[in-house]
Amino acid sequence: MSEKDTRGAKLSPQVPVNDSKTASAESITARILTIARVIGRQIAREQLKASEAANDRETNRVKKRDGCPKY
Predict the structure, then answer these.
(1) φ, ψ for residue 59 (rounded to 5)?
(2) Cα-Cα-Cα-Cα dihedral sign, residues 35, 41, 47, 53
(3) 12-69 tens-digit pLDDT
(4) Count of alpha carbons within 13 Å of 16, Cβ hemisphere only?
(5) Greatest CA span in the chain, whole angstroms?
(6) What per-residue confidence (pLDDT) applies to 24?
(7) pLDDT given at position 33
(8) In degrees, to the nearest 5, what angle opens at C-alpha 44 toward C-alphas 41 and 48?
(9) Rounded to whole angstroms, how far apart are CA atoms 24 and 42?
(10) Is residue 56 helix, strand or coil?
């Protein structure tokens, strides 16, 4: 005897929504690691840019105070 819903229609076998045959756990992990690596590189670029800008400001202050840069 087949199962029916409350309206009398036949129910199809239930398949989990996240049961994807196209993406394995390994490929998803690799994708996540790639995204994390890219985000880390972007953060490093931003930090380097900020530290270079701070260094430039400090060098300009030394030039103004002494008349020549200190090396």
Answers:
(1) -65, -40
(2) negative
(3) 777 667 666 666 778 889 999 999 999 999 999 999 999 888 777 766 665 555 565 5
(4) 4
(5) 96
(6) 76
(7) 95
(8) 140
(9) 27
(10) helix
Q: Can you tell me the distance from the alpha carbon of 3 to that of 13, in angstroms, rounded to the nearest whole number?
A: 10
pTM of the model: 0.46
On the CB side of 53, CA atoms within 13 Å amount to 6
DSSP-H helix ranges across 1-71: 25-66
Structure tokens at 6: 């409350």
Q: Which two tokens stand for residue 12?
A: 């199809």
Whole-number pLDDT of residue 27: 85
Model confidence at 1, in pLDDT bands (50, 70, 90)?
very low
Instruction: Give the Cα separation of 51 and 28 in Å (integer).
Output: 35
Count of residues in the chain:
71
